[in-house]
Amino acid sequence: MMGKSRKSDANQSVDDNDDSVVSNSGRVKISWEDKVKYLSPIASPLASKKLTKRLYKIINKAKANNSLYKGIKEVQKRLRKGDKGIIVLAGDVSPLDIISHIPIMCEEGEIPYCYTPSKSELGESYGTKRQACIVLIKENDAYKDAFQEIKAKIAEIPTSY
After folding, report:
1. What b/e string do you get for 1-23 counting C-beta neighbours within 10 Å, with b at 16 or more?
2. What is the pLDDT of residue 147?
């Protein structure tokens, strides 16, 4: 028989010592607390667990409405052109130099931004298996209320340097 064999749900295993779960794709799902351990030192303001889930949902909606820009080059270009929206950065980016200037650009342009703990989950939120360092969510009529709500929540997050 040619082709890939499928794994069943019975192949999903849980380690007794921690909360990580191996999924069918072979990827290890790490708990929120473990993801936060691997953040870069500048990852502030960090979105809460609940806000992160809401950000991932609105990223998915923005992708469906062509209001999402992803990747360092594309987001930088949009910031230089004066586009407004919400910037979501991954907190576990390495090397740190590739995104360290983005928060300064956001503060100068008065654009709300926050960090999420995982670059792989940030990429998965808009439907790809690739990791993403940064995304720009532009406002759209399809999710205007949720956008304004998230923008207000990001403004409430305390920053610590």
Report:
1. eeeeeeeeeeeeeeeeeeeeeee
2. 95
